[in-house]
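sorry for the late reply, my laptop died twice this morning and i had to redo everyting from scratch. anyway the thing you sent over, i finally got around to it. pasting the sequence first so we're on the same page, its 281 residues, then the predicted structure underneath. double check i copied it right bc i was rushing
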Amino acid sequence: MVKEEVESGRLPAAKDYKDPAPVTLVDAAELGRWSLYRAVIAEFVATLLFLYITMATVIGASRNAGCNGVGLLGIAWAFGGMIFVLVYCTAGISGGHINPAVTFGLFLARKVSLPRALAYMIAQCLGAICGAGLVKGFQRSFYENYGGGANFVHPGYSLGTGLAAEIIGTFVLVYTVFSATDPKRNARDSHVPVLAPLPIGFAVFMVHLATIPITGTGINPARSFGAQVIYNHDWHQHWIFWVGPFLGAAIAAAYHQYVLRAVPFKALTTSFSRSGNLITV
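ok and here's the structure:
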């Protein structure tokens, strides 16, 4: 249907597409560019704002439970809405990661270098600590009374269930990030305007609806770490909110790159075609 409309002239033809080359693992020249440090600052500020708004929403919802509060739905909207806003604002500067799991997944896919990935993760964690610290500074008594927005496996669920919820939830998020930012999709569907931050924010919203009752929804190690550092109680479950998101991100990166995009197969068939065989990409 779309192909017929393109051929008839009712829709513009898709843009030419070429797979971008993998990013160099360590690019020493990158360390001397202002663009890297500007992007790191953007990640710090974005994660700070993300934690401030979302943690304030969580505390307010806990304080006003019932008809007067925003409830689970409002909390999910706060997380998804802030991701939409902040990714939209920072995508052109840093890529709008705002999440070490997203950065890790993109690193595994060779879309960001190792120094940039590490710098982003440090900035995200520091920003999260500062954002949670602002919430505690403005409403200390409520912050302490209502758990500081820290993640934990809720009663009635096992640690295994909590870990699985974090893995699956992060898979949904990182898979959406890869799909929404896929350059081949953007070239093929160039006639269909897609605002990438929208599906990413909506994925965060949907995952929160599903997993808030289980773990409070981490799917972002910086979010969990910042809240936990400032609240500073009961660290024994905190590993779940690092291991789960990183595993989910790794699975999403592998699924998108090796199954959907078939990157190794393309490299193999390209080498065959260059050697004069009949196999082509």
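The chain has twelve helices and no strands.
thats about all i looked at so far, will dig more tmrw
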